[in-house]
Amino acid sequence: MNKTTNSNDSQEILSHAIEQMKQELGGKFDPEHINLAELERRTGISRGRLRHYQTGP
Q: How far is CA 12 from CA 6, 27, 28, 37, in A?
């Protein structure tokens, strides 16, 4: 598996988890203040990696 495929898989997992959180929280959802610990539990992606995704390259 190459890096691009792995990145696409991670993005799909993240998108799905964020969409679920958005539906659960409704109007209270703020993507700028997403709970990384909860996102880590839902996706299995480390908080360090999630911070990297959050801040961009």
A: 10, 23, 23, 18
pLDDT band at 57 (very low <50, low <70, confident <90, very high): low
User: At which residue do the structure tokens 């799905």 appear?
Assistant: 16
Average pLDDT over residues 11-15: 92
CB count within 10 Å of CB 25 equals: 12
In this structure, what are the phi and psi dihedrals at residue 42, rounded to the nearest 5 degrees?
-75, -30
**Whole-prediction pTM value?**
0.74
Please say whether the dihedral angle defined by the alpha carbons of residues 52, 22, 44 and 2, taken in this order, is positive or negative. negative
